[in-house]
Amino acid sequence: MIGYLRGKIIEVGDTALIDVAGVGYEINASSHTLSDMEGLLGKDIIVWVHTHVREDALQLFGFHDKIEKNLFLSLLKVNGVGPKMALSILSGGRPAQIQEMIENGNAKGLSSLPKVGKKTAEQIILTLKGKLVSAEDGTPAKKAKSESHTQITSALLNLGYKSQNVDQFVATLPLDISLEEGVRKGFQTLSGNLS
């Protein structure tokens, strides 16, 4: 099994091609990881890898960091979710956003992700809620909501923004953001999403 690759990014398209000591490895990755890699063309990087072996194929799935890889592996434990679907889900949002939706039981938010229907969203929550591993060292995910996140959520909801949009937006904010900064960014991001 390949755990990670260290090499030079040669090409990025639907997949990434990484040269490791003269051997080109084709890596399947989320749109976020591919986008990050695009800015690093020709540079040396480390890509965390999951090796998926089937009778007819050997595929490498690559991740920007261990947090994304751990979420991918967790998604594979869900009945009906294979590697391609897990990658589509990761392409629909950053790991912190997806983890928060799972921990909050937000089936509506999850079903807005690519290739996820209502039943799959419910299955993901049923299988993974409270069991996610997010940190690099493999410790369980904490409910990542600081006091300022709670205040920002409350302020934006009181201003009439939709709950689902507010939750998705707040999940992307740093934990130490101030209330004023969070609400200001909320105005910019969520305008047009009033209920």
Please give a quick description of this structure.
It is built from nine helices and five strands, in the order βββαββαααααααα. It is an alpha+beta fold. It has three domains: 4-63, Beta Barrel (OB fold (Dihydrolipoamide Acetyltransferase, E2P)), CATH 2.40.50; 66-128, DNA polymerase, domain 1, CATH 1.10.150; 147-190, Helicase, Ruva Protein, domain 3.
Provide a descriptive summary of the structure in words.
The protein has 195 residues and is α+β, with helices and mostly antiparallel strands. It folds into three domains: 60 residues, Nucleic acid-binding proteins (OB fold (Dihydrolipoamide Acetyltransferase, E2P)); 63 residues, DNA polymerase, domain 1; 44 residues, Helicase, Ruva Protein, domain 3 (Orthogonal Bundle). Helices cover 43% and strands 18% of the residues. The protein is built from nine helices and five strands, in the order βββαββαααααααα. The protein has a five-stranded mixed beta barrel with strand order 1-2-3-5-4. Strand 4 and strand 5 form a beta hairpin. The longest helix is centred in the C-terminal third of the chain and has 12 residues. The chain is globular, with a radius of gyration of 18 Å. About 3% of the residues have low confidence.
Compile the SSE list and pairings.
Blueprint: E1 4-12, E2 16-20, E3 23-28, H1 31-38, E4 44-53, E5 58-63, H2 66-76, H3 83-91, H4 95-103, H5 107-110, H6 118-128, H7 147-158, H8 163-170, H9 179-190
Parallel strand pairs: 3-5
Antiparallel strand pairs: 1-2, 1-4, 2-3, 4-5
Helix pairs in contact: 2-3, 7-8, 7-9, 8-9
